[in-house]
Design a protein that fits this description.
heterodimer; A: mainly alpha; 2 domains; 80% helix; globular; B: 605 residues; alpha/beta; Rossmann fold; 3 domains; 6-stranded mixed sheet; 25 helices
């Protein structure tokens, strides 16, 4: 048991360093980009003096090092700065928009896991048979269809034509849980499509590889039945690459969620991101990037730890 | 056609289980009777026949050897009888009647599952990959018991623990809780055997069970199988390429070639008076360590032997040590691979380095080849200290020093043609123009016995032996002073091995190149070397002329090693009974094994 605590501690330390490096990059990246937010806020007709006044007001005239220190020390206290436009703290803005996005992402991930893992496993077991061919065709389609096309298609079919689901919008979990779920069905399916395709392909490949291993032949030679071989002997050995992929599909998931929120008019992080970029509202963009970075680092930490649970050789190495 | 058994049904004692020692009493009834077994593999493009009209009887309590080279169909035979071949591609015909009752080949998969493991078990060549890497040894044995016997988990656990002790695993309670990678190769194969015999089967198929193991471990595993056979009333089908194993552990043998039976007789007949030319060629190809005395007298280049020590040897290794491990763990974390090794090789001489896995022989080869630096000591070649060379000088010096590796399949770039592979050293050292290069490549290919038609082939179009010839051509084209060859024949079939040994013999006298020949196979080393160094645990325990090391070994370890070699024509010497050493961690971390019952209940809840 001690070895796993040491492993978790080591990985956590690594994650903290990664996150800190990401924060520095986030600050530098936006500072090096072209485009003057003060000029945009002031508008096309403003005089240079007006723009300069706005710049001073926002603290953009300070030297970079000074702004960096200010920004980082704020970050450490949970202060992500203030929006250039609305003058609301960025942290508040993000927290307000977090619920729809988290619900949407969680639901999409749930669909993907529930569908991709069993289907990929069965496609491997019946490889080159009808189910395998059919499923692989589906995944090729699901992966190549752009998410906004899939979103509008789903919305047109199941909301506009059939009227089974709401066309767009969002209800909070607090006000009406059932309606919240109902509004999220189509968006979450749209966001789940590409990661379902990717995950079930990886699952299939991973199982195909493991099913060729000597110890699978040993299991058959012991007299174990098909289901036992698949579940008891193959599954755990196939899990490591699958878990790794789950970690990396999260990037695709986030990207999908941003697009889906715009298609279905969901007031989440995605639409906040889109607005902030359009307005060059640097503090919000920086705050969002920091949150995304944190999300990724934490998810990768979870992935690392969980595959060390599946395969003890990883932490004993 | 030599289809059926060459000897008629034996008329041994009709009743009672076989209880005699080793090759003891065998009763006449056949526990497995195979008739006209044929296996072919179908793909969209072709049909390949792997086994053709094979018939044999396995008698109760006997060990039947199935002998052949790779691709002869011996493993396919076992897998076909157990129904383990891929259903979609393999066509199996014929009969395999178990216990005079059921034809296994006509059984449904469901019914067959109750036979597999329960009545007929199988163990495989490589226990590392044949065991599930994520299940503890104990749970794999428990599984094989509970698949076939209605037994409580607790009862199965204590039964499994008994099995682990029975197969001679040291600290069975610790092994029970270990994962396969925590055990040594020999221990893994013991665990595999425990798993296979735990449900008390009547027949055990052993597919090259010791090929991946060191010779001393091999002998102990074979002796274990022999003991279990009489204790548990087992009949064993021993699939092997090794005629030494056949001679010492089998009662009868089938020799297979290209899917057909070419010989089927008592083991001593197959070895002593083989009737088929293929069997004879196979037996002639076996290198013999014990017969080396005669060969030595004939073909030794004068320089090394006659004048005693030449004034300055070609290669000198002085006090070389090597330890691996990260510095951050201090000295305790470091693992010693070599300890104070010194040796010399004269120009034109071949020094054989033998040892088991982990003896440090490969590390020594890598240091001599300047591929890794030693931790201490230095290496001198041709009067220059190579271990002090760096960068351009070292690279330039490499023309005098070439390497041949074990696995020719992995040592050749699959996308390069033979002519480019062999010409590469010439390009590296920029010694010739294009026309001269082609000329040299062709001459060198001819020297290794490959005609000009091979020049434009890709490695994938060559057999294993031809690939190794290409590797050798690449090593000799620069006319190096020293070649380091690490297990140059270990990946090859025995007949191909014999051809490669012949080739080395010829090249030695033609080119006068010195060689450091590293191998676990004492017979191969003895066939080629003027002197032999025996390595054990990172040190040289004995070094001397081949005839004296083989003929009158002084060091106890050399004696153990030699007595473990199974020569088909030499009676087995009784080696000292040594248990498999437990892994290093166990020796330090686990002073006393837990009480058996406590471990059997697993971790506390």
């Amino acid at each position: 048991m001690a070895d796993i605590l040491v492993f978790v501690a080591r990985r956590t330390a690594g994650a903290v360093i990664t996150f800190a490096a990401a924060c520095v990059l986030v600050f530098l990246l936006l500072d090096l980009l072209p485009g003057d937010p003060a000029a945009i806020i002031a508008g096309d007709t403003a005089t240079p003096e007006a723009a300069a006044a706005i710049r001073t007001g926002l603290g953009l005239d300070l030297p970079m090092t000074e702004r960096f220190v200010l920004w980082m020390s704020g970050l450490l206290q949970g202060d992500l700065g203030t929006s250039f436009y609305t003058r609301t703290p960025v942290a508040t803005l993000i927290v307000q928009r977090l619920e729809p996005t988290l619900l949407l992402a969680a639901m999409a991930l749930l669909w993907a896991l529930a569908l991709a893992l069993p289907a990929g496993m069965l496609a491997a077991w019946w490889s080159e048979e009808r189910f395998d061919h059919g499923w692989m065709l589906f995944t090729a389609g699901a992966y190549s269809l752009p998410i906004f096309v899939a979103g509008y298609l789903l919305s047109y079919l199941f909301a506009v034509l059939l009227g089974w689901f709401p066309v767009q919008g969002f209800r909070s979990l607090e006000s009406d849980p059932l309606a919240a779920f109902w509004h999220l069905v189509l968006p979450s399916i749209a966001a789940a499509l590409p990661i379902t395709a990717l995950l079930s392909r990886v699952t299939r490949t991973s199982f195909l590889e493991v099913l060729e291993e000597d110890f699978i032949r040993t299991a058959h030679a012991k007299g174990a039945g098909g289901r036992r071989v698949l579940v008891r002997h193959a599954a755990r050995n196939a899990a490591v690459p699958i878990i790794t992929t789950i970690g990396s599909t999260l990037a695709i998931l986030i990207e999908g969620v941003v697009l889906v929120e715009i298609v279905f008019s969901i007031p989440g992080i995605g639409s906040l991101t889109a607005d902030a970029i359009r307005n060059r509202d640097y503090p919000i963009i920086q705050g969002l990037l920091v949150v995304f970075a944190l999300f990724h680092v934490v998810m990768n930490l979870i992935v690392d730890v969980s595959y060390s649970l599946v395969d003890p050789r990883i932490r004993l190495r | 056609m030599k289809g059926g058994p060459a000897t008629g049904p034996a008329t041994g004692p009709a009743t009672g289980p076989a209880t005699g020692p080793a090759t003891g009493a065998v009763d006449g009834s056949a526990v497995l009777s195979v008739r006209g077994l044929a296996v072919s593999f179908h793909s969209a493009r072709s049909t390949v026949t792997a086994v053709d009209d094979l018939s044999f009887d396995l008698r109760a309590g006997e060990t039947l050897a199935v002998v052949g080279e790779s691709g002869s169909g011996k493993t396919t035979t076992a897998l076909a009888i157990l129904g383990l071949l891929p259903k979609r591609r393999a066509r199996v015909a014929g009969q395999a009647v178990f216990d005079s009752r059921v034809d296994l080949l006509s059984l449904e998969e469901r019914t067959l599952q109750r036979v597999r493991g329960r009545h007929i078990s199988m163990i495989f060549q490589e226990p590392m990959t044949a065991l599930n890497p994520l299940m503890t040894i104990g749970s794999q044995v428990v599984e094989s018991i509970r698949l076939h016997h209605a037994m409580s988990l607790r009862a199965a656990r204590s039964e499994a623990l008994d099995m682990l002790a029975e197969v001679g695993l040291p600290y069975p309670a610790l092994a029970f809780r270990s994962l396969p990678h925590q055990l040594s190769g020999g221990m893994r194969q013991r665990a595999m055997i425990a798993m296979a015999i735990a449900p008390r089967p009547a027949i055990l198929f052993a597919d090259e069970p010791t090929t991946a193991l060191d010779v001393t471990v091999q002998l102990r595993i074979l002796e274990l199988l022999d003991r279990l056979k009489s204790q548990l009333d087992l009949s064993i089908v021993l699939i092997t390429h090794d005629l030494g194993i056949v001679a010492h552990f089998a009662a009868r043998a089938i020799v297979m070639y290209g899917g057909r039976t070419v010989e089927h007789a008592a083991a001593e007949t197959v070895i002593g008076q083989p009737s088929h030319p293929y069997t004879r060629s196979l037996i002639e190809a076996v290198p013999s360590a014990h017969a080396v005395g005669h060969r030595q007298a004939v073909g030794v280049p004068g320089r090394a032997a006659a004048g005693g020590r030449s004034p300055r040897p070609l290669l000198e290794v002085r006090g070389v040590s090597k330890s691996y491990g990260s510095a951050s763990f201090g000295r305790r974390g470091r693992v010693g691979a070599l300890r104070d090794v010194s040796l010399a090789i004269a120009a034109g001489e071949t020094l054989g380095v033998v040892g088991e896995s982990g003896s440090g022989k490969t590390t020594l080869g890598r240091i001599v080849a300047c591929l890794v630096p030693p931790t201490e000591g230095d290496v001198w070649l041709d009067g220059r200290q190579v271990t002090a060379m760096r960068g351009r000088r070292l690279r330039d010096f490499r023309r005098h020093l070439q390497v041949v590796q074990q696995d020719p399949h992995a040592a050749l770039n699959p996308r390069m043609r033979v002519r480019d592979i062999v010409a590469e050293p010439l390009r590296n050292f920029d010694t010739a123009d294009a026309r001269e290069r082609t000329r040299q490549v062709m001459t060198t290919l001819e020297q290794v016995g490959l005609g000009p038609q091979f020049a434009d082939r890709l490695p994938g179009q060559l057999s294993g032996g031809q690939k190794q010839r290409v590797c050798i051509a690449r090593a000799i084209i620069m006319r190096p002073k020293l070649i380091v060859a690490d297990e140059p024949t270990s990946a090859l079939d025995v007949k191909v091995q014999a051809q490669i040994i012949d080739l080395w013999h010829r090249l030695k006298s033609d080119l006068g190149v010195a060689m450091m020949l590293i191998s676990h196979n004492i017979a191969v080393v003895a066939a080629l070397s003027e002197r032999i160094a025996v390595m054990h645990k990172g040190a040289i325990v004995e070094i001397g002329p081949t005839a004296s090391v083989i003929g009158s070994p002084q060091d106890p370890y050399t004696q153990t090693l030699l007595s473990s070699v199974l020569d088909p024509f030499v009676p087995r010497r009784q080696p000292p009974a040594v248990p498999d050493p437990p892994p290093r961690r166990w020796r330090t971390a686990a002073p006393c094994p837990q009480p058996l019952a406590q471990a059997a209940q697993g971790p506390a809840r």
